[in-house]
Specification:
This protein is an alpha+beta fold and 69 residues long. The chain has a single domain, classed as YefM-like domain (YefM-like fold). 57% of the residues lie in helices and 22% in strands. It has 3 helices and 3 strands. A 3-stranded mixed beta sheet has the order 1-2-3. The longest helix is centred in the C-terminal third of the chain and has 22 residues.
Length: 69
């Protein structure tokens, strides 16, 4: 888990952007020491959305009685 402060985001956006593209996972942003935001690259977000959609489809299939072989 990567955690950065909102000050880092404000003062060095480029560094956070590069990091997000390199690690392809969410970066947690804190404000006054508390969790505030999550930042990730568009590619990582789209990949995550596809996996969530696939998971929902598989759950629906299971609820309809379809089973894996």
């Amino acid at each position: 888990m990567i955690i950065k402060s909102s000050t880092t985001l404000r003062n060095d956006y480029g560094k956070i952007s590069t990091l997000a593209h390199e690690v392809e996972e969410p970066i947690y942003i804190t404000k006054n020491g508390e969790g505030d935001l999550v930042v990730m690259s568009i590619e990582a977000f789209e990949k995550r959305e596809q996996l969530l959609s696939l998971n929902q489809s598989l759950q629906w299939l299971n609820s309809q009685g379809f089973q894996e072989n």
